[in-house]
Write a structure and sequence with these properties.
Elements (H helix, E strand, L loop, with lengths): L20 H22 L4 H20 L4 H24 L4 H62 L6 E7 L5 E7 L8 H4 L2 H7 L8 E5 L5 E7 L23 E5 L5 E4 L6 E4 L6 H14 L3 E6 L8 H8 L14 E3 L2 H21 L1 H7 L12 E6 L2 H6 L3 H16 L5 E7 L10 H6 L2 E5 L9 H4 L16 E5 L6 E4 L5 H10 L9 H7 L1 H4 L4 H8 L8 H6 L26 H16 L27 H4 L4 H11 L6 H8 L3 H13 L4 E3 L6 E3 L5
Parallel strand pairs: 7-11, 7-12, 8-9, 8-10, 10-11
Antiparallel strand pairs: 1-2, 2-4, 3-4, 5-6, 12-13, 13-14, 15-16
């Protein structure tokens, strides 16, 4: 049996490589021998070989001078050409094939090879020395600059900070070219870095730094060291666009929220921490909230719920791209998982969050035991829920009864559900004692941001960053600029990225596949309030914000369209039948698949027997138990409880506790039921009750 596979042994010849000392000498000697043999056989004049050698020597001398080679190398190359040409001339005259001619040629080749090797080593050493000299020159220049900076700041700190004499260990220039950091050793005698930190404004003024630039001191590697960050270029004045890198993030590796003056990203770690964002009107707070939502949207283990009682404006840009999707390509999921713009929807969301957190404490005991931790292992399979509550600090400080009810639920989430992966991001309009007076906020919201926008009134930075020294509102008088501090990064200046609506839409589409789904146990605890969060009745106000680009004349010719899905049960005139090339059943199946993929809905709870349900889609327009006719789905349970209470009836508050719903929504449903005759209302002032008709 033969093996047809070709095998190659030995060294591989590289025809593209240049000549070395050995191959160069071999090429020169064989070339001279060939030329001498040919010249002797043909009677070529011997002087031609000598002329060619002289020309080669001159040419190599010129090129070597251009390459700035050493004199030793230039001489070796010229001598090789002349010696080779001289031997060839002699061999043509006396014959190249004698032992004398061949022996002298071999000796010449060995000499050329040895000389080439020697000059090559000399050139390499010369080149290395040249590079080392250049590096030494750069090092001397940098060292001189750093020594000058160190001496200047040692003198300045001694002059401004009451005689503190530092010993500078290093000066690091920032890669962005916008400043430097001084690493220094504090003098003995108990001097701390706070002595320098509190003189930040005086040091900045003494150094004549531009507006927006500061000299801030922070802790060093130990308590006897100090780091002084000096900003020399104002990077806070202009806009910094949000990065176009939408790569996946994680709650465990930190979420980027902006950049420091030295160009470093500042990250928030929110697995166990809540966040507080303070910013007056015009400071760029809304834009920064979108920065936060962008980081959440890119995370593979975070679900974002947003409460914005100001018409839901903070969350709408993250939902609209999904509502406007035409279904022609891949389904687009909203950038946030739930949006509440009303008190009722916010109450449903917070109630669901509390139920999820309490259920997780029981359902995942085995998982936490296997992981040997008392913190729920958050992952893409069991995501963390981040509740972003716009002006949430004001809700906590409000005296309105409805707001106080929401505040109670918010504090319950903050206080009880840290270990189970539910955290909050609250915003506030000002840094005042009335807004930030709640101890729970100050204790749990360790990631803090204060966007000043140059506003001085109501911006007490000591309330946002207690213990921080040298922070002044006047240091960040620009929109989107302010201060950020976390347990991992001390409070200091930072700049928020500028993010615009078109980029928000791009992020929603780019990160649609990254969003996790709520785990089965949590979805079970959240119940129908969560499963129906994208129902037509609850999202019609969002869809009303979608506009079409058509001419006014075309819009006038069209009949007023109902908001939401175009259901056949609502149409007076049926649409034309599908074209011959399409199958109606296939179109319906594709439509429902896209709805489920886009909004993550779950099957609605059964309310009757299989015989009572008609085949096909379970549309609310075709159901007999529509909310506007017979109340919400929990009303039968409420009626049963009221009937069981007998002639004494039940207060609305007791009914709300029995069915697990908000009191306001329960009152409205019971009032509607009384108007339909399903209940009887007994007005007894604060003791008013609802009674079942059979006990009236």
């Amino acid at each position: 049996m033969t093996n047809n596979t070709a095998t190659t042994t030995g060294p591989v010849w590289d025809w593209a490589a240049g000549h070395g000392p050995v191959t160069g000498a071999l090429s020169a000697t064989t070339g001279a021998l060939a030329l001498a043999t040919t010249g002797a056989a043909t009677g070529m004049p011997a002087g031609w070989a000598l002329a060619a050698g002289a020309a080669g020597a001159i040419g190599h001398t010129v090129t070597s001078l251009r390459e700035r080679l050493a004199a030793r190398t230039i001489s070796m190359r010229a001598a090789s050409w002349l010696l080779g040409a001289g031997w060839t001339t002699w061999a043509i005259t006396h014959g190249p094939l004698t032992w004398t001619a061949l022996g002298s040629l071999a000796t010449l080749g060995v000499g050329i090879g040895a000389a080439a090797r020697s000059t090559l080593l000399h050139e390499e050493a010369r080149e290395l020395e040249s590079l080392a000299a250049a590096e030494r020159q750069v090092s001397r220049e940098l060292s001189a600059e750093r020594r000058a900076i160190a001496a200047e700041w040692v003198d300045r700190i001694q002059r401004v900070c009451g005689g503190i004499t530092l010993r500078v260990l290093a000066v690091e220039m920032w890669p962005t070219g916008t400043g430097f950091t001084i690493d220094a050793e504090l003098p003995p005698g108990g001097v701390t870095y706070e002595r320098i930190a509190q003189a930040s404004a005086q040091l900045s003024a003494d150094a004549r730094l531009p507006h927006g630039c500061t000299a801030t001191a922070s802790q060093g590697i130990d308590q006897g060291r100090v780091l002084i960050d000096v900003t020399t270029v104002n990077v806070l004045a202009g806009e910094i666009e949000y990065p176009t890198d939408y790569s996946p993030l994680s709650i465990h590796t930190g979420l980027p929220w902006g950049v420091r003056p030295d160009g470093r990203e500042v990250r928030a770690y929110l697995r166990e921490q809540c966040a507080l964002i303070v910013g007056p009107t015009g400071s760029g707070k809304t834009n920064f909230v979108h920065d936060v939502l962008a980081s959440f949207s890119r995370a593979t283990d975070i679900l974002t719920w947003v409460i914005d009682l100001n018409a839901g404006s903070a969350g709408l840009p993250w939902v609209r791209p999904a509502l406007a999707a035409d279904g022609g390509g891949e389904p687009v999921r909203p950038g946030i998982d739930w949006l509440a713009a009303t008190y009722e929807e916010a109450a449903l969301m917070l109630d669901a969050a509390v139920r999820i957190g309490k259920h997780r404490k029981v359902a995942y005991q085995d998982l936490m035991a296997r992981a040997n931790t008392d913190l729920l292992p958050v992952s893409a399979q069991i995501p963390q829920i981040m509740l972003v509550i716009d002006e949430g600090a004001e809700i906590l400080a409000s005296s309105d009864p409805q707001m106080r009810s929401l505040a109670k639920k918010i504090l319950e989430v903050i206080r009880l559900l840290r270990a189970m992966g539910l955290r909050t991001v609250l915003t506030a309009l000002g840094a005042t004692g009335s807004v930030l007076g709640n101890l729970m906020i100050r204790r749990e919201a360790k990631a803090r941001v204060c966007l000043t926008g140059g506003e001085v009134e109501g911006m007490d930075l000591s309330k946002v960053f207690p213990g921080a020294r040298g922070l002044k509102v006047t240091q960040a008088p620009y929109k989107g600029a302010g201060f950020m501090g976390t347990p991992e990064s001390p409070a200091g200046l930072f700049k928020a990225w500028r993010i615009k609506p078109n980029q928000i839409a791009d992020i929603v589409r780019a990160t649609s596949a990254l969003h996790p789904r709520l785990d089965e146990q949590s979805a079970k605890a959240a119940g129908a309030d969560y499963a129906r969060r994208w129902d037509q009745a609850r999202t019609a106000w969002m869809r009303d914000t979608l506009t079409t680009t058509q001419s006014p004349a075309a819009a006038a010719d069209q009949a007023p369209a109902r908001p939401g899905l175009n259901l056949s049960a609502h149409r007076d005139q049926q649409p034309p039948a599908p074209s011959a090339g399409l199958d109606a059943d296939a179109l319906a199946a594709r439509f429902m698949a896209e709805i489920d993929a886009e909004f993550g809905t779950t099957p609605e709870p059964s309310t009757g027997t299989d015989e009572d349900r008609s085949a096909g889609l379970n549309l609310s327009a075709l159901r007999k138990d529509r909310d506007d006719q017979s109340g919400p789905e929990w009303l039968p349970a409420a009626l049963t409880a009221i009937q069981a209470a007998g002639p004494d009836g039940m207060k609305p508050a007791a009914v709300a506790d029995a069915v697990g719903k908000g009191r306001e929504s329960v009152r409205k449903a019971l009032k509607a039921a009384a108007e339909r005759g399903e209940l009887i209302y007994r007005d007894r002032g604060p003791h008013s009750v609802y009674i079942h008709p059979e006990h009236a």
